[in-house]
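During data preparation, a discrete fold description was generated, and the record follows.
___
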Amino acid sequence: MDWIVAPDGNGRALPDVLPSLLGSMGVAGFTDTLGLPESRRAAALLVDGLGSDLLREHAADAPFLASLLTRPPLTAGFPTTTVTSITSLGTGRCAGEHGIVGYTFAEPSGGLLHPLTWASRDLPDRPSMLESWPPELVQPTETVLERAAAAGVDVRTAVPAEFAGSGLTRAALRGGEFRGQRALGDLAAEILDSLDADGPGLCYGYHGHLDFLGHVHGPGSLPWRLQLTQLDRLVATLAERLPSGAVLAVIADHGMVEVDPDTAFDADTDPALSGGVRLLGGEVRARHVYVEPGAREDVLAAWRERIGEHGLVLTGEQAIDDGWFGPVVSDAVRPRIGDVLAIMRVSGVVRSAAEPGEAALRGQHGSLTAAEQLIPLLVLGG
């Protein structure tokens, strides 16, 4: 289908960013596949939700960021969602290896894990799973940050202070020194301090407010555009103060599209989307459908008929064979992938009863459209 942008497997995807930055510094064991400038210290600033298409469409609101759109975009991976993308960035691996395969996905006791909170999503009290299914067990591979720190690199993680010790932090960003941030000033100062220190260094910074406003008001809305302008000024300020020999790469985890909640399919009220379904994971634009024993073909046919031209419904095996989860899907990860997957071209599949908050959002992501898949690589310094 011509609307599907598959993840890149040739060294130009989100998992390649941190290894390329380390390779550009000459750190042993890392290769720069992105063609970055040589540097002595580097930082990656991830702006949640800043899709390449969105930045081009709203260049007037972010003229400095738009002026840096000189390189081809990267692909985020699949699904195009924060938990998967940040783990791909932090591990240098695709979802088929690191195992964080969606916004929610099946866990061994028969429920759904919500990695943002590391809690069971399908139980009424949503109990924590930090002890019953620890992040280090769910995602056991060594992170890029751990490898870099072991090689003698000064590694820092500049993210919101409330992420300290969270399940996602433990799964995706183990290694180095956690530096909790409270506002834009903290974030900017930490990045600049890291880039101005002695010896090889790598700093990962995160900003999430653009994504938040896109979800609530829609991408391209006035609140979203004003937030984009603030980010433009932030990066321009960092550029003005960038130390000699340092490199800053501004990236994103995914883009975003607008979805009208009133016209979305509702899996909690539509019998065609609930028959034979044991668990329904993923998110509005990319659903993992886990079926009752023997029901896969019936569920596949029912979802295909109901979704029609609004999206693509396929088996999990087909998505694996097509490389959506990367070149390797481990035996431990396969059961986390839906028996059936539904990815949307337009609209979405909401759950009005189980996920009322998510169902009401105007901005969504997760699918493989260009607007969700393509992310910018904006490079400063060197």
